[in-house]
Structures are given as structure tokens and as C-alpha cells.
Amino acid sequence: MQNLSNVTTARSKIPVLGSFALAFIGLGVLLYGNGANIPLTLLTTGIGAGLLLWPALLWRSPFRIGLFFLLIFIIVFAPPLPPFFGSANWRIHQLALIVLAPCIIFWRRRIVTRVDALIAFFSLAVVLSMLIGTVSGNPPLMRDWFELAKPGFWWLIYSFGLGLGWRLESKERALWILLAVGIGCILLALAQYSDQGGVNSWLTPVFLSGEAHLSSISYRVVGTFVSPALLSTFMTTVLNVALVAALFSQQQKWLRIILILSVGGAFTVILMTASKSGFLAGILSAVGLMLIHLWSSRGSALAKPLLTSLLVAVIAGTGIFMVARSDRIGTEMTPQQALLSGNPLTATLYRFSYIAEDLDPDSIRLTDWRTAWELGREAPIFGVGPSKGIDERTYFHSEYLLVFRRYGLVGLSAFLFLYGSIALSAYRSFREAQTRQDAQQQVMALSMLTAVLVFATDGIFSNGATSDFQLSAVLWWMVGLFYGSTRYEKRCLSGGTRSIYG
Fold first, then answer.
1. DSSP state, 78?
2. Are 482 and 165 in contact (CB under 8 A)?
3. Cα separations (Å) of 125 from 120, 384, 460?
4. How many angstroms separate the CA atoms of 224 and 446, rounded?
5. What is the dihedral of CA 60, 65, 70, 75, to 10 degrees?
6. For labelling alongside 369, which of 55, 137, 357, 404 has CA 20 to 30 A away?
């Protein structure tokens, strides 16, 4: 009854919200007609649209899933906004979250989770580093303020997912939405790789411009992301979700076939990107999920170790073949020949032929790691702040070393604890779901666990997955969905009310 009362109260406010919404939209149109700058016009009109969307966000209606689909769709597929927003590579979902921020903050006023505290702690570390850096003669530049905005965007999209993942039905549909968007990105990447219909001449420049577009040509595929590495991380996440759904959900046979085909398509795109870290993360997560499914099933005690040994033997044999084949490719082909060979496996094996060079003390990656470590030791506690003007280079091939350089041990500890807390919560949720034999929650928990492990692994070898506004939005979208559904289930199991207002 309480839940019904809340919804009825919300619906009674429709005329008020509609009046304010029309006023803001009318103001935006008026400003545009009088020649006002475009960002102000879009922001004013967006606030009006946000006021209309907000009731749909809270009600138990199909509009909530529609908003969920719209957000993840524009995160993955919408190109960067035009240059009048500056050189910050703004995207539509960032403006949408800013418009909805007052509504989200109002809704979250009575709902606090552990993730909120962890994000706040990391934000505090960023602010302290910025203040100390300013006092030390390293004031932030205008573009450096976006580093402070990143935790804010994480929180906004986490809150969006938290609300929409509240219901048991919503969380399952949301994962299918993610898979549908992932399949769309797979098809786009395949079209780019084969240049079907001349797609690279008209589509890729929409997402990339200038030097970024020219440098991406040699890789053949970037999807809608800035670099092949970011696309590889997203595809590894899609691969994990599809494989978890195929192994642990209770679906019809034809749907399982589609899921397996999606796994194959995602792995093919990972090969197209020629990303070594994406390839290894995809292989390890797939093997790990198959082993978890094997040992959690009701098979005989003898079959489990035999199948495990067979799987390990197949992986070992494949690894030996890849090492031998990559050495041969590395001596027979040039980088351009391998990347443009038309065989995605060839390009990836070529990259593996240079692993020995990556481990050389003078390699670019290890040199960047040493540089970041030495710079970080200059201010090991709070760092030097996010200023990009103090260092000649801002890319150190490691998210963790970059955080250590900018925010010191305090910021790095908060960053690592944030990842660790999410992974631990997902693991505990999976074990609880196993005890209850809840297949739906097992899928949700394992999808979250594998996704955060992929992003955490990517952070070892690059500083893009967490820093990039587009890719990090996918992670925090899933984190919100996971915590919202977990919180809902705990309330139901304890006999609490099923209110969408928390």
C-alpha cells in the first residue's frame, strides 16, 4: 500500500512537472530564436526534457526499460558532440546525466550505499591532491577540472543504474539490452573490418577525426570507440555477459545458440583489434566461467577433474601452437602486412610475437612504468594533482601508476578499494545465489564480477578503460544495476516493502 501511495503521489505532480518542463523547453526555443549560444540553448531545453523523463524513471512502467536502453545505446553508439563544446570529447550521455542530476540527487537523498562512500572517498583524494598541488605551484588547468568531474559522472550513471535495476524483472532485461547493443557493435566492427559498403569512408570519421582517424586505419576496426584497445575491453565485457547467460541462465535452446554465436562474434572482434590484453582477458574469463559452471553443476565426482584436465590440455596445446605460429608470423610479415592481412588471428599473433620485446627493460611500456613510479615517488602521499601541465607525458600504460602519480598512495588506495569492494560484493552475491539456487542472480553477479575484473586487468596495461568517459560509463551502468538488484532482493528476502523509492 505504501508503494501504491508513493506512485499515486508522484502521478499527482504531473501537471506541475509538465508546466515547468514546457517553460524550460519554451525558454530554450526562445533563446535559440534570439541567437543565444548553442550550449545554453541545449542545456535549457534538456532540463525541460529531463523533467518530463523523470516520472518515467521512477514509475513501474515500460518507460524505465526504455530509458535504460536509450542510455546504454547512446553511450555505445552516439558520436562525440560538435566542437562548440570544446575539445573535451563530450558525449550525449554526459549532458543527459547533467540534466537529470537534480532529479537523481533528489531521489538518492534517502538511499546510501557502500559504493557512494567509496566514490566520495576517491573524490576527496582528488580534491586534496588538487589543493596540495595548487599550493605547491601546480595549479590545475581548465581541462584538468574534468578529472575532478570523472567521479561525479561515475556516481551519476551508477545512480541511474541503481534505480533502474531495482526490480527483479528490470535487471534481467537490462542485461539483454546490453547484449543487444553489444551485438550491434559486433556487426559494426565486422563491417568496418571488411569495409562493407565503404563503411570506413563515411562512418568512422563521424566518431574519429583528424589524426585519430588516420592512425586508426592501420588497425582496421575501432567500432565507435577512440581506440582499438577500448573496443577490445568493451567486447570482452560483452563476451563475458553472453557466456554467463549461456552457461548459467535457464533459456530456450535457440536463445542459447544466439548467445554462443555472440560469444564467437565478440571474440572475433577482439582478434580484430589485435589487443593482447583483451585477448588474454577474454581467454581467461571464458575458461574460468566454464570451470565454475563445471564444478557447480551436478556431475559425477570423476567427470569433473577429467573434464578440467582436458580443458587445461586444450588450452596448453593452443598456447604452444600460438607461440610457434606467432614467431613465424613475426619473421615473415611487417606490422602493416599483419594488421591488414584480412585474418584477425594473424594480426593478434603478430602482436604476440613481440611479447619478449615488451619485457625488455628498454621497451616503451616498462620505460613508462619506471617513469611513472619515479615521478610518483616525488609526492607519494597525496600526489601532485591532476594537472597535465606538470609532466611531459600523461600516458603511462597503467591506470594504477597514473593514479599514483596524480593522487598518491591515498588516491591509489581509494581506487583499488573501490574495485575490490565491487568484486567482493559480486562474489558474495554469487555464492548466496548458489545456495538459494537462484539462476537469475548468479547471472547478474557473475556478469558484474567478470566485468570489473576485465576493467581492473585493463588498468594494469593501459590508462583508458577507467579514464575514458564512454567506456567507464558501461562499467558504472552495470555496477548500479548490480547493486540495485542485490539491494532489492535482500529487502524481499527479509520481508521488507518493495518500494521503488528505497
1. P
2. yes
3. 9, 11, 21
4. 26
5. 110
6. 137
Residue that has been written with the C-alpha cell 550550449 in this structure: 39
The predicted pLDDT at position 480 comes to 87
Q: What is the C-alpha separation between 164 and 154, in angstroms, rounded?
A: 16
DSSP state of 438: -
Q: Which pTM does this prediction carry? A: 0.82
What lies within 8 Å, CB to CB, of 174 at 6+ separation is 65, 68, 161, 164, 165, 481
Tell me the C-alpha to C-alpha distance, in Å, between residue 113 and each of 156, 235, 314, 502. 13, 29, 43, 11
Question: Residues 484-500: pLDDT tens digits?
Answer: 776 655 555 454 443 33
Residue type, 104: I
DSSP designation for 166:
-
Cβ contacts of 298 within 8 Å, gap of 6 or more:
none
Cα–Cα distance measured from residue 320 to residue 456, given in angstroms and rounded to the nearest whole number: 27
Crossing angle (nearest 10°) for helices 62-77 and 168-194: 30
Torsion of CA 352, 358, 359, 362, to 10 degrees: 160
CA atoms within 13 A of residue 468's CA, in its CB half-sphere: 24
Q: H or E element: which one contains 68?
A: helix 62-77
- Residues 406 and 386: beta-carbon distance below 8 Å: yes
Q: How is the chain split among helix, strand and coil, in percent rounded to 5?
A: 80, 0, 20
Among the ranges given (40-44, 115-119, 285-289, 307-311), the one the predictor scored with the smallest mean pLDDT: 40-44
Secondary structure (H, E, C), 40-61: HHHHHHHHHHHHHHHHHHHCCC
Q: Which three cell numbers stand for residue 122?
A: 576517491
Distance separating the N- and C-terminal Cα atoms of the chain: 14
